[in-house]
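fyi for ur records
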Amino acid sequence: MIRIVVLAAALLAAPFASAAAPVHEYRLDNGMEVIVKVDRRAPVAVSQVWYRVGGSYEPNGLTGISHALEHMMFKGTHEVGKGEFSRIISALGGDENAFTGRDYTAYFETLAAEHLETALKLEADRMRNLVLDAEEFAKEIEVVKEERRLRTEDKPTSLTFEQFQAVAWRASPYRNPIIGWMHDLDSMTVDDLRRWYDRYYQPANAILVVAGDVDPAQVLALAKTYFGPIPAGVQPADKTVAEPEQQGLTRVEVTVPARQPYLVMGYKTPIVGTAAEPWEPYALYVLSAILDGGDSARLSCELVRSAKVAASAGADYDTYSRLPGMLTLSGTPTDGHSVADLEQALRAQIERLRSELVEPGELERVVTSVVASKVYQLDSLFYQAARKYLNDDQLTVAVLRPLSMEGDEPEGAALAAGGRHGA
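which gave:
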């Protein structure tokens, strides 16, 4: 699935990229893939190196190691000293960063197209020449722990969502947080990182994406020059863990100091490549857009503005991921309404999707022209997908029950769920 995600990134990497411009795809002799998207509207290039490794690859006891290694990738190589990577890119007027997801880790630079060679040279260098110093790691892992505290442990909604994932998935590695469990971060060693780096940071396990004011042939030549000499390595054949079928509704409550209650509901759903019927993921994607596709979508229009049962409400579904995921709904009730009221309102929206066909006008509003050409005339498919997957046997519900904060009583107002190197 990572190739689909990366191809989408190639289309979006250059600002205002022309949809008509073709995507050029190559493969080096060492197995590294190269994807180039041309956009000549500004003399700028975006370079990205994606590795097929992220939170979902991590075994128990090593959760968070992909993200921790991402941090260490900026600590220098045998040729480029600590902090020099960022300094060099900045001196050229560019910027750089990285991010770790469930299924990938990616590093990127945005800079004048004339300096693309420098970015590729630096990325090729740290692909295999990273210096992993125990003393430096001991300091950086504390930064990662603090990031976990700030983004999850001290943020009630994030903590609730983390617990929701941990309970919803029995076997899937999606049950673990990308940043890792704190006890795993406490026990992580630099030797763990070194083995992880040697296993996954190889050309055969990487994809280079370049978008912007570039010539595809020249990009390929630069890729051959800098990445080509690196031995291919072996693309790891990691076994995927099958998630057992859920036998009924699952609930979890999180009680921590918070100002507002919060609700998360998730229905286990297939993705492209795993669905019994190829059209199902696309139908689910459109269903999520019907619920949460802007101010005119059903959740915003009917639950927030009309019924005023929700201060905020949203829906999300990832069509392309490595493993099957969930269609999730979340929200915060308004003052005067309970979490139970909000759950009932969200369930009513799901039941409506299960029992009623979407009106053509509404469907046309939420589907893109590309999807519409395939799906619009088959609107009954949405009804089928909703009935198959959006039922209690696939459902997990997590509720944040606020404990009184010192000097405050829980409120029902709106809230929002939720660095530099290391997102």
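Residues 14-18, 372-383, 407-420 have pLDDT under 50 and may be disordered. thats all i got for now
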